[in-house]
Structures are given as structure tokens and as C-alpha cells.
Amino acid sequence: MDFLSDFFIRFVAKLQSPTLGFLIGGMFIAAFNSRLQIPDAIYKFIVFMLLIKVGLSGGIAIRNANLTEMLLPAAFAVVVGIIIVFIGRYTLAKLPNVKPLDGIATAGLFGAVSGSTLAAALTLMETEGIQYEAWAAALYPFMDIPALVTAIVLASIYASKQSGTAGKRVRIWPIVKDSLQGAALSALLLGIALGLITKPESVYESFYNPLFRGLLSILMLVMGMEAWARISELRKVAQWYALYALVAPLLHGFIAFGFGVIAHYTTGFSYGGVVILAVIAASSSDISGPPTLRAGIPAANPSAYVGSSTAVGTPIALALGIPLYMGLAQSLMGG
Amino acid sequence: MDFLSDFFIRFVAKLQSPTLGFLIGGMFIAAFNSRLQIPDAIYKFIVFMLLIKVGLSGGIAIRNANLTEMLLPAAFAVVVGIIIVFIGRYTLAKLPNVKPLDGIATAGLFGAVSGSTLAAALTLMETEGIQYEAWAAALYPFMDIPALVTAIVLASIYASKQSGTAGKRVRIWPIVKDSLQGAALSALLLGIALGLITKPESVYESFYNPLFRGLLSILMLVMGMEAWARISELRKVAQWYALYALVAPLLHGFIAFGFGVIAHYTTGFSYGGVVILAVIAASSSDISGPPTLRAGIPAANPSAYVGSSTAVGTPIALALGIPLYMGLAQSLMGG
Amino acid sequence: MDFLSDFFIRFVAKLQSPTLGFLIGGMFIAAFNSRLQIPDAIYKFIVFMLLIKVGLSGGIAIRNANLTEMLLPAAFAVVVGIIIVFIGRYTLAKLPNVKPLDGIATAGLFGAVSGSTLAAALTLMETEGIQYEAWAAALYPFMDIPALVTAIVLASIYASKQSGTAGKRVRIWPIVKDSLQGAALSALLLGIALGLITKPESVYESFYNPLFRGLLSILMLVMGMEAWARISELRKVAQWYALYALVAPLLHGFIAFGFGVIAHYTTGFSYGGVVILAVIAASSSDISGPPTLRAGIPAANPSAYVGSSTAVGTPIALALGIPLYMGLAQSLMGG
């Protein structure tokens, strides 16, 4: 009970944090049909800035880290990414009025990772003083890519069975490559590489780090506006998508949290890292995932998966998931 | 005489301030047909950043303020906004070669408020150390909306009389709503709401506040370029518009200054606040006003009102109005 | 030998500097066909920010400087700009399979100056603590404009001879004006003017200067991506362009370095200033030059000159030229 009442206090406090305030503000702005818009060029640039910053700090950390520590969490990230897609395959994609390919694609998007959600979690954790391994942000691709690959492979298997051409092999590398070519993952990996190889500390401290929190607040505004705008798309598809998008982020986060706790007890993975693993699992891809899925599962309807993720999944992960996992970690750390 | 010589010294000093230097620099750049351009996405983003910053600081101030202080200045802002439009209705709109609807729309735009001019005034006042109530920037909508509503109502009355359909009611709420939906007012009100409800101090101090002055300098550059580009539009309409645009900003500012002084003696409104009230009155809307007027008075010619405001009214308010009201306030404070 | 081994150590260290790291990172990103892109509006804005910053600091410096010091370096900048074009005219433009007009235009672009390369050099020099006259950045137009004018005049003479209309005068002022109207030079000169006339120190210190290094890192990323993308264009034209683009930047830089050393011994021009003169000569114009050349030598093929400059000339100047001239200056300063 203590945990629950703590959680509610924390939840209300989080809604007062500017990060979530901007998200909700964006929804109001969109609901009011305001002509206020953040130009697309600015939006793309902000995403780039946030992910290269996360990458740079990760790369700098990895340079000074004992990487064997990262092995188990990375393996768990892969496992969780695959599990998430299988859960969607055997729940959402089996439901009446849900086309199996649409359901599989949606599951793939919910297994993939949102850099913006990750950035928001990192900011909130810093505000609360929760420590984490700086390389933990680099777990992103270890969950993102396997989830997208799994979804595309499952979709291909399904499609082959339908058309009676079973046995046709799905080629994995093009999916991995397409995923790595996405703007979000490219920026993150570029940041990691530059952090590892060059010495970007001065430009990081004078530019990327100080701008991070402010740019994130604007990104949250855009995501709120976008979430509201996509709700109408969601209405066009079966109600099951809305239910899945409500439940799945929290469920996925708890699964990853469980794996994270195992890593905590076996290799000393920090509770902050556990929260990051959970947030990565709870998040659903909003930028890099959709183009890969569109190429990999062309028969699936983008309104289904983009609507579910942007309009419901991301706000749930941000406004409920992050405070929930942070609260859980703080309870466990205190205990 | 002392005041006048003081004013001239102050005026020359102000032209040396980078804020006005960038404005004049923009005019030179445009006059020289340079290919230098600030991309539109950047311009829109800068306006957003400035207004959300003004809003945030207002909202934070209101959270800790005794709002009854704001009542009289807010009422005066409404009154001045309406007076300005009536002045234009019975001067400019009555002149030969001026179409009444064009004149009324122009008066509406000069009653409405420019967020950029307000931002410039706030910067210059901080430089000079003139104190003001932080909620004073929140007077903006109290003048902006009544002015636009009055203009559209007067235009509608005029049009009904012409077509003999007098008695048709003008609906006020759609005009108010359209005005609130404008990008500038939306950003300002969003900032106020976030400043009131969330605790944005850390992101405000680390991001919005430090970038304010620099972004304003770029905005001034764009406004200078824009002012020069619009002068040709102004030439197409009657010369009376140029005369009105030269005289009106200073006159409107003095009227508001007078009301402000009344508030100073009755409720202790600061002289800095009086300057802000005067600047709000002297400014004419450049971003949010035109779309509302276009929708509300579709028969009016946008070249008339946009040209008058952007090419003459705004530069006059910035380069003459602001130093004038600041100088006047400093004389009165000293006396 | 000492100098050479020093240079190699320095060269490897420079590749670790984030400035060059971002350049090389951009090439990798482009080579990998990533969908990561810096929106064009952001790119243009960054170039504006960097050049106005360089201009402002130059203008502030000139305000407090003894300008007679600048005379000899400025004269040398003009001379080097003209020499570079003549070298190209009598080497590249005479080669088989090279159309003379294409060769002359390419030589003009290599004589013109890249603001981005100059900005990168200033950052690296500050990192290494190499002092220079702040007005040295203002040498830019003294080399840029004469080089473009010379190229267009030589092209016009060649074309007149071909068509037998020799004796037709080429008008110089339109070329100079077109060059000054370019976005890069306009921003630089605007910055110089504002630095000279207004007092922009506060906005410079709070905004333009702190953002410089970070924005430069992003610009380097874009230039790396652009360089890779243009290599295919270069392949379409004769191989001689690639050879010229490899050799010319370093050669031009050494010629300018020599003139700079003369100025050092005669008027006390700093070695830092000598490096800047060399970098200005080594750089080739990427933003402002091409439109002027397209207007001035319409018969020349832009793929030839833009490809040579962007894909080879600029990376060579950045990654080899800058460390080379800095190392040379440091050896001479130490000796």
C-alpha cells in the first residue's frame, strides 16, 4: 500500500515536471486546433541533437568502462525485444477484426525503441538523482533491431503460409541494415562512435549537454501535438489496437524490469540501468521504426501501427511507465 | 528641453544597441538585395521560443503574485485596445482614397499586439535596469483580442449598413477563438499555463532564458528584412496608410502611457509596467493578427494593413517608441 | 625529420578532434546510405550563425585595432586570390579533356573562400592556444572577391577570343556585387558592421560565441555527408579535376603561408594570422561561390567545380591543410 500511495504522489509530481507538462500542453494545443506548429525541420533537428547527445555520453562512458558488464543487459535487451513481438503475434494479431499482418507490424513497433522516450527518462532520472551506467542508453539498438527483424520475419512466415509458398527464406541483413540506416539509430550510433574514438568532451559539455533538457521540452510538445493528431487515425482501425496500446507498454516494461533485476543480482547492473531497460521496452518507436516496417511488411496498414504507437503507446510510456519504473526502482533501492 | 536632449542622446545610444542594430542591419541587407535569408522554419521557431519564454516567466511570476494588482492594468489594456480601433475607424477609414474596410482592418492590426516588439522592449528594459511586474507581459492578450474583435465588429456593422442588412449579429466567440488559435497567442498562453502549473524553473533558467537575447537579435534581423520587403506593398495603397503608420504607434503608446500613469498612482503599477503597456499599444501585430483579420474581414486588402504594420508601424514602435517611453518613464521615476 | 614526425603525431591527434571527427563521421553516414539528414533550413542557419559570429568578433576587434596593420595582409590576400586563379588557368584549364571554361571556373572556386573551413580553423587554433589578430578573419573577402572576379574576367576573355569578339569589356562591379550579395559574405560583412557600429558584446558573449563550437561540429557533419554525396558528380568529369582538387589546396595554402611570413617579418603579422591567411587560400568556396560562378560563367559545368571543391578540396583543406599550417607555424614560433 505504501508503494501505491508513494506511486500516486510521485505520479502527480511527475505531471508537474516540465517534461510531462510540455507533453500534455502539446495535446491541449492540438485539441484546441491552434495554428502553433514546430516546423518539421526543427523537430528533426531536435531528435538528432537528443540522440547524438545520448550517443556521445554513451560513447564517452564506454571508452572508460568494463564492457563485460554490458553483456548480460545487452543479451536481455535482445531477448525482451523478441518476446515483445511474440506476445503481440499471439495476442493482438489473433484477435477478431485485426488483420494478422497489421497486428504483427504493431507488435514490431512496440518492440522497437523510441529515442525520445529514452531521452525523457534520462532527464527525469537525473532530476531525481537516480544513478545509471552511462552505457545503458546504448542498449537501445540491442532491443530495437531484434524486435523489427522478428516482426518482419514473422510477417513473412505468415504471408508465405497464406500464399502457399512456405519455405521461402527471409533475408535478415537487409532488415538490420534498413534499421541501422534510420535517422534515429544512425544518430545514436554516430554519437557512440564519436564518443568512443574522438575526444568530444569539450563540445559535449559546452553544447550538446546544456541544450539537452530544453530541446527535450520542445520535443515533448511536438509529441503531444502529434499524439492528439493521430488519435483520429486510431479510430479508423479496430478498438483492439487501443486496448493493446494501453496495456502493452506497461506490460513490456515490467517484463524488462524483471530481466533487469536478474542482471542486478547476477552482475551488479544498477537499478537506474534496470529502469532504462524497462523504459526501452515500454517505449514504442515513433521515428525510425515506421519506415523499416513499411519496407519490410508493405501489406500492413501504417495507420494501425503508427496510430497505436504515437497516439497511445508513447504517452502511456512517458506519463505512466517512466514514473512507475522509477518508483519501483526507488522502493527496491530503499529496501 | 532637458527631456528632449536626454531623449536624443538616448535615441542615438539605442541605435547602438544590438537589438536595433540588427533591425537596421536587416533593412540594409534587404535593400542590397542580398541572398542572405533566415529560413522560415527558423523564423517561426524563434518566435515560438521568444513567446513561450515570455509566457513562462509571466506564469512563474503570476504563481507568486497578488493578482488583484493586475486587474486595473488589464482593464486599461482592454480599453486602450478598443480606443485604438475607434481612432482608426474615425480617422484613417474616413480619408479619401482609403476604402473603409481596409482602414478598419488596419486599425485592428495596430490595436493588436506584436510579440516581437514586446520581447525587444523587455530586453532593452533589462539592459537599462528598469524594473517591471513579470506578469505585465501577460497584458498582451487583454489588448490584442479586444482590438481584433472591435475591428471585425465595426467592419461587419459597416458592411451590413452598405448592403442594407443592418441588424445581423456578429458572433464574438469565433473571433476570440481564432485569435487564441494564432501561433503567437497560443505560444504565449501555453507558456503562461506551463509556468503556472508545472515547475519549469530549471529548464527556463538553463535554456529559454539564456537563449532569449540572442534569438531576439536574429528575429530583429528578419523583421528588418521583412520591413524593407513590404515597403513596395505599401506603395500600392494610398499615401494615407504611410502617414497613419508613422503617427499611430507613437500616439497609441502615449494614450496607453497615460492610462498606465493613472494605474501607477492608484494601484502602484510600476513605471516599468507603464512602459510595457505603452509598448503593447504602440506595437502592431505582425504574426497572429493578419490571419484573424483575413478570416474576419475578408473584403479588406491585406497589402494595406500588413504593409503599414510591418514596413512602417513595427520599425517606428521599435526604434522610436521603445526609447521614448523608456526615457519618459525614467524622467518620471527620477522626478 | 623532426617536423615531419611532429606533423604525423599532430595529424593523428587532429583526427581525434571532434571537428574532424564529425567531418569523417558525416562521410561514413553518407557512405552507409543512412536516412539521417540535417534539414536544409538548419544547415543554412548554422552557416549564418558561424559567419555572423566570425564577423562580430572581427568587427569588435577592428573597432579597437590599428587598421594600418591590416593593409599588407589584405593586399597579400588580394594577390594570392588572383595568383590562384592564374595557376588554375595555366595548369588545369590547359589539360586534355578539361574544357577551358570548366577549368577556369574551378580555379575561381578554389581561389574563393569557404567560411566553414575558416570557422573550423579558428576553433582548432583556439583549442591549441595559437594567438591571432581578431581582424584576420576579415581577410576573407579580400581574397574571395578578387578570385571570383579574376575567374569571370579570364573566362570572358577566353570566350571572346573563341567567338572572335575580342575587345568586349567585362564589367567588374556586377561580379563584385553578386559576390557581396552571397549569403556567406553578406552574413560576414553584416557581422563586421554590427561589431564595428553597435555594441554587441553582451549578445556575442551570451549567444553567438558559446554556440559556435557546437554548431561547427554539426556543420562538419553536413560537410562530410555532402562531400561523399558529391564524389559521384566528380566521377563524371575528367580525372584531372580530382588530381587538381587534391594538390591545389595544399599548394595554395603554402603560397599564402609564404606571403604571410613576409608580412610577419615586415609588419609583425602574427603567426596565427599567417595560418589564417594560408587556410583562407587553401579553402575553396562551397556556399557563396557557386551561384556567382553560375551567373558569371554560365557555360561552365557546375558538376566540375562544385564536385571538385566539395568532395575533395574542402576535406583536404580541413583534414590536411589546417594541421599542416598550424604545425608549420608552431615550429617557426618555437624556433
Can you walk through the features of this model?
Three copies of one chain form a homotrimer. Chain A is an all-alpha fold. The first copy, chain A, has one domain (2-333): Na+/H+ antiporter like fold, CATH 1.20.1530. In chain A, 80% of the residues lie in helices and 0% in strands. Chain A contains 14 helices and no strands. In chain A, helix 6 runs antiparallel to helix 12 and helix 11 (239-267) runs antiparallel to helix 12. The longest helix of chain A is centred in the middle third of the chain and has 36 residues, at 201-236. The first copy, chain A, is globular and about 55 Å long. The two termini of chain A are 15 Å apart. Chains in contact: A-B, A-C, B-C. Chains B and C meet through helix 2, helix 3 and helix 10 of B and helix 3, helix 9 and helix 10 of C.
Helix content of chain A: over 70%
Question: What integer value in Å does the Rg of chain A equal?
Answer: 19 Å
Predict the CATH topology of chain A. Na+/H+ antiporter like fold
Q: Tell me which oligomeric state these chains represent.
A: homotrimer
Which protein chains make the most extensive interface, counting residues with beta carbons within 8 Å of the other chain's beta carbons? Answer: A-B, 29 and 27 residues
Main sheet characteristics of chain A:
none
CATH class of chain A, named: Mainly Alpha
| β-strand amount of chain A | under 5%
Count of structural domains of chain A = 1
Structural class of chain A: mainly alpha
> What coarse outline of chain A follows from CA principal-axis ratios?
globular
Q: What's the rounded overall pLDDT mean of chain A?
A: 88
Point out poorly predicted stretches of chain A: none
